[in-house]
Amino acid sequence: MLSLPEKSIEAYKNALRIDRTFEEIYLFIAFEFENQGKYGKAARYLKRCLKLNPENESAIFEMSFCFEAAHKLDAGIRYFNEFLDENAYSKAAWYVMGQLLSKKQEYKKAVTAFDFATVIDEEFGAAWFNKANSLAAMESYEEAIKCYKQVFKLEEPDSTIFIYIGECYENLEDYDQALKYYQKAIELDENQPDAWVGIGVIMDIRGNSAEALQHVKRGINIDPTRGTYWFILGDIQLKLGMKLQAEESYRKVIEFEPENEEIWMYYSDILFEENRLEEAREFLQQAEKYHPGNARLTFQQCELELRSGNDRSALILAEIAISMDSEMAKKMTQDLTHFGLNAEIRRLIQRYTDNNE
């Protein structure tokens, strides 16, 4: 409590010298190491705790946290696989296994792990919720909705789950149901930006872009730091002929989410169309700082050089980009006008394709 972790650990270790079977002490020592960012040492004490009592759910959850914090998901999955071989009815272990697999984007295996957790305890709301998230990530939206709704039978309604259900219905193109759940989310919590933006997206899909604009702006007012919201706003503004405002919105995407590859391509396309080539060059140079060695960006730079009449530079860039991703190059002949029309580049793509076959 005095923020003296080393002395705290020393005291706990003295206690262990008196009684090595006092499982909570191992847990307390692990907490102290976690607070210092020493996750490997924390895990060693958690393992000792779980050897004494494999049913200590606090130790199971902390062990999972250590693997995640140390970015050792594979090691965590191996550990819990071995743990579950001996403790197959541990719902907590199946749950954290599902979480680790989900973070590895192994969603099918994650769903299986969450299934075991819910079979052991049908009222395990967090397992149903995380199973739904994994199903949604697999685009199994109808199954995900069923799992989200199962959570409502076990816990009080939550605005976040309403939003997730709304997103599933939106992906299923059932816009009436999507709208219903976004509105339910706002009824519970009017400060849910995802719900306001979700309603805006649906209104835009239905051709009511002017009203959609207001809903998206409402979401941005709640959370102005989400690049995705600004991207959606920019698209709607462009559709409404608000070109200058749209450009401002796209620049906001770059400000808050420069890692978003799509915005760099999308906005540079706008600059190409308006023949603002020097501005596009500066823009793509800026993009390269965030996406070095990116094939798609290199194709975009090649297109810029072709439009600028710099064929020699364009061919050098084309060869670099095609060597990075010859399959993408074929698609670029459709997406990038000057790139697709250049006969020499087409021959270059064919040569790389033939060599790879």
Question: How would you portray this structure in words?
Answer:
With 357 residues, this protein is mainly α. The protein has helices at 5-18, 23-35, 39-52, 57-69, 73-86, 91-103, 107-120, 125-137, 141-154, 159-171, 175-188, 193-205, 209-222, 227-239, 243-256, 261-273, 277-290, 295-307, 311-324, 326-335, 337-341, 343-356. The model has no long low-confidence stretch (mean pLDDT 93).
Strand content: under 5%
Number of helices: 22
Major sheet details: none
Q: What order do the helices and strands follow?
A: HHHHHHHHHHHHHHHHHHHHHH
CA-atom Rg in angstroms: 27 Å
Question: Cα distance, first to last residue?
Answer: 66 Å
Low-pLDDT parts are none
Mean pLDDT value: 93
Q: What is the chains' assembly state?
A: single chain
Number of strands: 0
Based on secondary structure, the structural category is mainly alpha
Shape annotation: globular
Fraction of helical residues: over 70%
List keywords for this structure.
357 residues; mainly alpha; 80% helix; 0% strand
Brief digest:
80% of the residues lie in helices and 0% in strands. By secondary structure, the protein is an all-alpha fold.
Map the helices and strands.
Blueprint: H1 5-18, H2 23-35, H3 39-52, H4 57-69, H5 73-86, H6 91-103, H7 107-120, H8 125-137, H9 141-154, H10 159-171, H11 175-188, H12 193-205, H13 209-222, H14 227-239, H15 243-256, H16 261-273, H17 277-290, H18 295-307, H19 311-324, H20 326-335, H21 337-341, H22 343-356
